[in-house]
Amino acid sequence: MSTPTRKEGLRSPSLLNGAPWMLTVKADTIDKDIKTTTNLGNGKYFDEESFFQSSDLPSKLLPIVYTGSNGNVSSAFCNQGSVKDEKH
Q: Could you tell me if 25 and 3 are in contact, meaning their C-beta atoms sit under 8 angstroms apart?
């Protein structure tokens, strides 16, 4: 059995269905390409597509974090305060 779902605004990126025997399906489209370049600290650049556009990002390099490394289920969804920089 499958059941459709829809996104509830910009702050609901995850799909959930409480019934484990149902397949939850989500379909979405966007009709434009948003190009971006990612600059890593080792000097490598990657040209990509992104939905995120911001003009107020800091110019300093930010760490790349694997959210599943600390065993906290909340961090897998990047909930506020759940992902910590391991250097500090």
A: yes
